[in-house]
Design goal:
single chain; about 500 residues; alpha+beta; about 65% helix
Length: about 500
C-alpha cells in the first residue's frame, strides 16, 4: 500500500512538473506580448483641438453710462448691487428650488456617471461562473461540477478608448459650464421679472393717481357747468378722459398678476403664490460695473467655456474614429476547475488558458471611414458654432453698454419733462378755474402728464433691465476654473 501511494505521488509530481514546463514558455510569450503592447502604446492617435481665429478688439466701443471714471469690478453676487433685499431673497430661493436649475444639475450628474462608465473600459473585465448537474444517458449517470474565472482586456494601443474617455471628460466639463450658465440666466430672469412686476405696480399706481386727477378736474368742470360757466362739450370731454383712465387700469392689473405668476413658476412656486410688497422702483439703485477687456470675455462667460469644451469633445471623437480603423488587440485569461462529483470540487482537474487576439476589419462597407468623415464634419460645425457664439457675446456686451448710456440720458431728460408736465397741469387747472383758458388746455396738460409719468416708469425699468443685460453679457462675475486655480497657486 505504501509503495503504491509513493508511486502515485511520484506520478502526480511528474505530471505537475511537465505541465509547468509546457505552460511556462507560453506565459513568457504572453508576457512578452503585453510588454510589446505597452511599448507600442506611445503610438496613440491624437487630434489637435481646432479653435476659430476671431480677432478681438483691444477695447469696447462703448462705456457704461458714457462715463470714463473707474467702475467697480463685477462680482458673482451682482444682483446685490441693486439694493433690493427682496431680490436677494428671490435669487437665493431660485438657486435652490428653481426647476430649470434642478434639471441642469441632473444633467451634470448624468455626465459624471457617463464618464465613470466610459472610464471603466480602461480596466480589465472579470467574470466568474460555475455549474453542477447530473446527466443520464442509457441508464448511465454522470455527475459534474465545474467553476471558471475569466478575464479580458483590450489594449488601447491607438488611444481609441482613451480618446473616448477624454471626450466624456470634456462633456462633463461642458455640462458643468452649462449649469453655471443656467444659474446666471436664472438669476438674470428672476431679477428682470421682479423689476417688471415693480414697474407694472408703479404704472398701476400712476394710472390710479391719474384717474383721481381726472375725477378732480371733472368735479371742477361739473361745478362750472352747473353755474353756466362751462359747456356740455367740456363736461363730455372730461368724462371721456375719466373713462379712458378707468380703461387703462384693468390691463395693467392683469399684466401685473401674470408677471407675478411667471416669477412664481421660475422659483418653483405655485402660480397663485403671493410676494412681499413694499419695494418701489425709485428706491432701487442702478449699479455700474467695469466691462473689462474684450479678450477677458473668454474666461468670464460660462457659455463660451461650454462651447470651447465642445471643441475638445469634437477633437477626441475624431481621434477615436481614426483609431477605430486600426487593429484591436485583446488579451484574455481563463482559469477553472472541473470534477466528476456533484456540488464538489474534490479531486478536480484544473485548467489555465492565456490568449492574445488581433482583430482587423477588412471590409465593412466604408462604415468606419464614414464615421471619421462624420466626426470631422461635426468638428467643423462646432468650430463655426463657437465662432458664432463668441461674436454674439461681443455684440451683447457692446449693445448692453450702448443701451446703458442711452437709457441714462433718456431718463435724465424724461425727469425734466415730467417736472414740466406737472407744472403745466397745475397752471392749466388754475387758469381754467379763473376762466382764463379753455378746458382743451387742461385736457392737453393731463394727457402730457399721464404719458410722462408712465414713460418715466418704463425708462426706469429699461435702465434696470439694461444693467441686468450687461451683468449677464459680462458673465455675472463667473471665472473659468483654470483661471481660478492659477490665481490660487500664485
Amino acid at each position: 500500500m505504501k509503495a503504491r501511494a509513493s508511486a502515485h505521488a511520484a506520478n502526480t509530481t511528474q505530471n505537475t512538473h511537465a505541465m509547468h514546463q509546457q505552460t511556462t514558455p507560453f506565459i513568457r510569450r504572453f508576457s512578452l506580448t503585453i510588454l510589446s503592447a505597452a511599448l507600442l502604446s506611445g503610438c496613440a492617435i491624437t487630434e489637435p483641438v481646432l479653435r476659430p481665429e476671431v480677432p478681438l478688439p483691444s477695447a469696447w466701443s462703448e462705456r457704461p453710462n458714457g462715463d470714463t471714471a473707474p467702475q467697480p469690478q463685477l462680482t458673482d453676487t451682482w444682483w446685490q448691487g441693486f439694493g433690493s433685499p427682496q431680490l436677494d431673497a428671490l435669487v437665493a430661493e431660485a438657486q435652490v428650488s428653481a426647476p430649470d436649475l434642478r434639471i441642469q444639475a441632473e444633467r451634470v450628474i448624468q455626465a459624471e456617471l457617463a464618464l465613470r462608465q466610459t472610464g471603466a473600459s480602461l480596466l480589465p473585465a472579470l467574470s466568474i461562473g460555475g455549474d453542477s448537474g447530473v446527466r443520464t444517458v442509457d441508464s448511465n449517470t454522470s455527475r459534474s461540477t465545474d467553476i471558471g474565472l475569466s478575464a479580458s482586456y483590450e489594449l488601447d494601443l491607438w488611444g481609441r478608448i482613451g480618446a473616448t474617455v477624454t471626450a466624456s471628460r470634456a462633456g462633463l466639463a461642458a455640462s458643468r459650464f452649462d449649469y453655471d450658465a443656467a444659474r446666471l440666466s436664472m438669476s438674470a430672469s428672476v431679477a428682470s421679472t421682479w423689476f417688471q412686476s415693480l414697474a407694472l405696480e408703479e404704472r398701476l399706481d400712476i394710472a390710479r393717481q391719474n384717474l383721481a386727477i381726472a375725477e378732480r378736474v371733472l368735479r371742477v368742470v361739473q361745478a362750472r357747468y352747473d353755474n353756466g360757466a362751462a359747456s356740455a362739450l367740456d363736461l363730455s370731454q372730461q368724462r371721456s378722459t375719466v373713462l379712458t383712465q378707468h380703461k387703462l387700469i384693468e390691463p395693467l392689473a392683469v399684466q401685473l398678476r401674470q408677471t407675478r405668476s411667471a416669477l412664481a413658476i421660475l422659483l418653483g412656486r405655485n402660480p397663485q403664490a403671493r410676494f412681499i410688497e413694499g419695494e418701489r422702483l425709485a428706491g432701487l439703485t442702478v449699479p455700474t460695473v467695469a466691462a473689462g477687456l474684450p479678450s477677458e470675455l473668454l474666461l468670464r462667460r460660462p457659455d463660451l467655456a461650454a462651447s470651447e469644451a465642445g471643441l475638445l469633445v469634437a477633437a477626441a471623437n475624431v481621434a477615436a474614429a481614426r483609431a477605430a480603423l486600426l487593429p484591436s488587440i485583446n488579451l484574455s485569461a481563463t482559469a477553472g476547475g472541473a470534477s466528476t462529483a456533484l456540488l464538489s470540487l474534490a479531486d478536480s482537474t484544473r485548467t489555465l488558458a492565456l490568449s492574445a487576439s488581433v482583430l482587423q476589419k477588412i471590409f465593412d462597407g466604408g462604415r468606419l471611414a464614414a464615421d471619421v468623415d462624420i466626426q470631422r464634419s461635426r468638428q467643423r460645425e462646432l468650430l463655426e458654432s463657437h465662432r458664432s457664439t463668441l461674436l454674439a457675446a461681443l455684440k451683447e456686451v457692446e449693445d448692453a453698454l450702448a443701451n446703458s448710456a442711452r437709457d441714462t440720458r433718456q431718463e435724465a431728460a424724461q425727469r425734466e419733462i415730467l417736472a414740466e408736465a406737472q407744472r403745466s397741469l397745475r397752471l392749466a387747472e388754475l387758469r381754467y378755474r379763473e376762466g382764463a383758458d379753455s378746458l382743451l388746455t387742461v385736457l392737453d396738460a393731463q394727457r402730457t402728464l399721464f404719458a410722462a409719468q408712465d414713460q418715466m416708469a418704463q425708462l426706469r425699468l429699461a435702465r434696470l433691465t439694461t444693467a441686468i443685460d450687461l451683468y449677464k453679457a459680462l458673465g455675472g462675475g463667473w471665472q473659468h476654473p483654470a483661471q481660478t486655480e492659477s490665481a490660487a497657486q500664485t
